[in-house]
Design a protein that fits this description.
371 residues; alpha/beta; Rossmann fold; Dihydrodipicolinate Reductase, domain 2; 13 helices; 34% helix
Length: 371
């Protein structure tokens, strides 16, 4: 039985470890003893590890056949680099801000396969686009996506399943999209729109930097955009927090102590954004692609509305199971492309695309497609 190590035992890491433990010898590692206790309660092996200690990380992953990355974004790039240098294949969902292709030559040099950004969006959205891009000429790609608590609760009407500092990144990182063949850069939270979703109601969409690798790998598509979804009204309070400087990474002096406002805000928000026991949430995503296929105009729409199931959070399932599907493809030698592979590369082959869709459907994550 192949040995897999999951770096990160948070809400998503725990779900991935449990899913992979059905087919692999799994060990989960984290710095948080509380997180590790929850994973250990599932009968999964655990080990405490500080991911910022590169030497210790390199030593820890040595005995394993494949590495799964679920660390906070600010640790992601260095973690992936360390895994590559150790000569290990990897599937990662850390969504780090750096360009993953900066590690492409290194990964090829070490002969390893690294699938990055393999969550729901980025992740499954890329896989879907990669599949159709090989089979049609796409003129327009739009992805609207969000994860929200089922019950709206003042003041935030939001709960986080990722580390709060990674969520805050969405609110400050400039949003890039492609319009008429040119890249456009706008501030995050810009161009709000109200959009109706069956089974959910009206949500608010706004520009976020979700295209990531697609801007580089899909230069043939003249119009591409991804927007984040929240309950209506959230943009205003987020803008107030941002303009106040509370999202800033620049240190300030508070009574002789140097602090970053974003660290203080993340510390304050974490307990308020934490889901309460038994609290449910949902993931909603709509992907629309328009273009020509076999000489005819074609429009594909993929819809996802996924809710907490049997106590397992929807965002953990939709993100985590996309990643664990890719783990199976890499571990079983079905996907062997060396170097950095964003998920759109994974989606190009029919058998890979169908494997991931079936894998997700078997776990209750259903993408409904209309033509």
């Amino acid at each position: 039985m192949k040995k897999v190590i999951v770096l990160g035992a948070g809400l998503v890491g725990k779900v991935m470890a449990a899913d992979l433990a059905k087919d692999f010898d799994v060990t989960a590692v984290d710095i948080s003893e509380d997180a590790l206790k929850e994973v250990a309660a599932l009968g999964i092996k655990i080990q405490k590890l500080d991911f910022s200690n590169v030497q210790q990380l390199a030593e820890t992953i040595k005995p394993f056949d494949l590495v799964v990355g679920a660390v906070p974004g600010f640790l992601g790039f260095q973690t992936v680099k360390t895994v590559i240098e150790a000569g290990k294949n990897m599937v990662d969902i850390s969504f780090f801000p750096e360009d993953p292709f900066l590690l492409d030559d290194l990964a090829k040099k070490h002969g390893v396969t690294v699938v990055t950004d393999c969550g729901v969006a980025p992740g499954m959205g890329n896989i879907i686009l990669g599949y159709h891009n090989k089979r049609m000429t796409i003129h327009t790609y739009e992805c609207l996506v969000g994860g929200l608590p089922l019950v709206r609760e003042w003041p935030y009407e939001y709960k986080a399943v990722f580390s709060p500092i990674d969520v805050i990144e969405e609110y400050i990182r400039p949003a890039r999209y492609v319009q008429n063949g040119a890249m456009v850069v706008k501030e995050a939270l810009s161009d709000p729109e109200l959009v109706h979703f069956d089974g959910v109601g009206t949500l608010e969409s706004w520009n976020s930097d979700g295209l990531r690798s697609l801007i580089k790998t899909m230069p043939n598509i003249p119009n591409m955009i991804e927007k984040t979804l929240r309950y209506p009204g959230c943009i205003e309070y987020l803008r107030v927090l941002r303009e106040t400087g509370l999202f800033s990474y620049e240190t300030i002096d508070v009574k002789g102590v140097k602090v970053r406002p974003v660290d203080v805000l993340a510390k304050l928000l974490f307990p308020k954004w934490k889901l309460k026991p038994g609290e449910e949430e949902f993931t909603v995503m709509r992907i629309v692609m328009e273009g020509e296929e076999n000489g005819k105009k074609k429009r594909y729409q993929y819809n996802l509305l996924d809710r907490t199931l049997n106590g397992t959070l929807s965002m953990a399932r939709t993100t985590g199971y996309t990643c664990t599907a890719a783990v199976h493809l890499v571990a079983d030698g079905l996907y062997t492309r060396k170097g950095i592979s964003p998920p759109e590369f994974l989606g190009e082959e029919e058998k890979h695309f169908q494997f991931v869709r079936t894998y997700l459907a078997d776990r209750g994550v259903q993408y409904k497609v209309t033509e």
